[in-house]
């Protein structure tokens, strides 16, 4: 890879600056500075020769900066070649270039040396052409120059490591990992607040802390001096993550204490459970109907949790000792519950020949005995009743379905009849129209007047004769005001009649129709003339 010429055909000028940093560090700082500078635009770079080409907005042409090793491996030299036509205007730009590069090196923790009082100007062939005073890059350098010092002055990074850790003078884009670390830490902070109320396990709190901690470590590595921006965001994210971890651990420890306190109070709760059960026990009466009548009633009349259904019954009887349980088990045997019998010190289960099943369990700690009886007969009756209900419901649904089908069939039948009637009317109308056309055609072929035309013209002539008779009477009357209503009616009829004649389609008339029309109109006009 080669570096493009700064300005072909021109005679460029160059100067150089020395730094107390390795050539590799100086080149890295130079590259970083040009990438994020608002004044200098990076055009091209060659990592092998450590050469970059850049431009400035105010000067035409390209600048070339090359980094070489100084007098020893711990120093580096930057040589900048400027276009000849830039003239003295390039001096300020080069001074700013060296100053920005020195600041970038200081951010990265390296040292920068003061330039010598004068810097030799070289042409493209390294031949001396003129001497230009080099602008010091730092205020300390200016002070050294004023004092007449020609020896190099060293500027070192701050010795306070904590302050250096918080320093974030990097330019350019903010690290996406730093932003992600801040967001995840904020979420973990909310989880820590939630943990204060829910008391989760300590292990779960630690697991949730792993993600924000890892992101903070990655963000810290990415925001080292000379890299991406976002060091302060990373520090804030780490602080939030630590606070969230502390909150979640406090919540977890509080939950552990609460659990141990609950465990310690369990015996007292157990001892009080019998008292609570004692309060629940109430006097009850043994049922006289249903499944409960198939087993004997217990001696105690106090109980709780009574559930009575059509084919089953259950109750928990209070004040029952072990001897009472044995006595009740013997009563069940005497009642016939000996099929599939199973008995222990606290339980009894068996069936009778009818298929009824009973289960009895005694609780010696609380002196209670739970009794449950399932009646097969009642269960069969209930099953039959439900089956009958299902059958009746099915019959009803079928009846409803059949009625809907019949209704639908009736609607279809009516619809078919209406369609047949409509078709018959259409056919009848078509036949009438066809007959009328045939009649008119016969009249036309015979040379006669079309009946519809003759009828209309005859009606018109008849009305006009009636109109003329009225006008003769009206003109000769001495009470014309009394005939005004009749006159208005005649005029209304006259308007309707003339409109009817005008609406006739004369384009389909035959010669005979037209001849008859002229004859009628001639007679009408003669009669009107006689009236006027």
Automatic annotation (TrEMBL):
Keywords: Membrane, Transmembrane, Transmembrane helix. Residues 262-274 have a biased composition (Low complexity). Residues 401-532 form the DUF6591 domain. The keyword Transmembrane applies. The chain crosses the membrane at residues 175-195, 201-220, 232-254. InterPro entries: DUF6591 (IPR046526). Residues 374-439 have a biased composition (Basic and acidic residues). Residues 256-277, 360-452 are annotated as: Disordered. This is Actin. It comes from Bifidobacterium choerinum.
């Amino acid at each position: 890879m080669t570096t493009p010429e700064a300005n072909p055909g021109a005679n460029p000028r160059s100067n150089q600056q020395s730094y107390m940093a390795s050539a590799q560090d100086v080149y890295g700082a130079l590259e970083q500075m040009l990438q994020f500078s608002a004044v200098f635009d990076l055009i091209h770079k060659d990592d092998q020769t450590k050469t970059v080409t850049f431009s400035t907005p105010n000067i035409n042409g390209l600048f070339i900066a090359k980094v070489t090793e100084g007098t020893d491996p711990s120093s580096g030299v930057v040589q900048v070649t400027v276009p000849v036509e830039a003239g003295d205007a390039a001096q300020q730009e080069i001074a700013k270039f060296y100053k920005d590069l020195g600041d970038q090196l200081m951010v990265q923790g390296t040292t920068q040396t003061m330039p010598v009082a004068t810097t030799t100007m070289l042409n493209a062939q390294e031949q001396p052409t003129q001497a230009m005073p080099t602008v010091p890059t730092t205020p300390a350098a200016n002070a050294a120059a004023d004092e007449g010092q020609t020896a190099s002055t060293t500027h070192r990074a701050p010795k306070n490591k904590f302050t250096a850790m918080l320093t974030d003078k990097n330019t350019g884009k903010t690290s996406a990992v730093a932003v992600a670390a801040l967001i995840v830490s904020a979420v973990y902070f909310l989880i820590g607040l939630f943990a204060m109320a829910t008391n989760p396990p300590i292990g779960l709190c630690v697991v949730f802390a792993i993600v924000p901690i890892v992101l903070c470590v990655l963000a810290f590595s990415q925001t080292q001096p000379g890299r991406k921006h976002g060091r302060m965001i990373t520090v804030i994210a780490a602080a939030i993550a630590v606070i969230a971890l502390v909150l979640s651990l406090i919540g977890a420890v509080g939950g552990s204490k609460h659990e141990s306190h609950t465990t310690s109070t369990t015996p007292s709760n157990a001892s009080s459970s019998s008292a609570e059960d004692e309060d629940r026990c109430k006097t009850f009466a043994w049922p006289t109907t249903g499944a409960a009548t198939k087993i004997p009633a217990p001696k105690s009349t106090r109980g709780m949790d009574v559930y009575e259904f059509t084919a089953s019954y259950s109750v928990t009887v209070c004040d029952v000792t072990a001897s009472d349980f044995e006595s009740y088990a013997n009563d069940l045997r005497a009642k016939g519950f000996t099929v599939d019998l199973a008995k222990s010190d606290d339980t009894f289960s068996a069936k009778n020949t009818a298929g009824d099943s009973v289960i009895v369990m005694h609780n010696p700690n609380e002196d209670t005995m739970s009794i449950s009886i399932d009646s097969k007969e009642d269960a069969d009756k209930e099953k039959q009743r439900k089956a009958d209900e299902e059958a009746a419901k099915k019959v009803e649904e079928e009846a409803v379905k059949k009625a809907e089908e019949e209704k639908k069939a009736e609607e279809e039948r009516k619809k078919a009849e209406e369609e047949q009637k409509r078709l018959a009317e259409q056919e009848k109308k078509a036949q009438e129209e066809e007959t009328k056309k045939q009649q008119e055609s016969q009249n036309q072929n015979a040379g006669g007047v079309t009946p519809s035309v003759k009828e209309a013209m005859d009606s018109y002539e008849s009305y006009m004769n009636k109109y003329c008779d009225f006008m003769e009477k009206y003109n000769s009357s001495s009470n014309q005001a009394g005939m005004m209503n009749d006159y208005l009616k005649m005029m209304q009829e006259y308007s309707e009649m003339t409109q009817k004649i005008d609406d006739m389609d004369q384009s389909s008339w035959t010669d005979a129709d037209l001849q008859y029309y002229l004859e009628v109109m001639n007679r009408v006009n003669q009669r009107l003339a006689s009236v006027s």
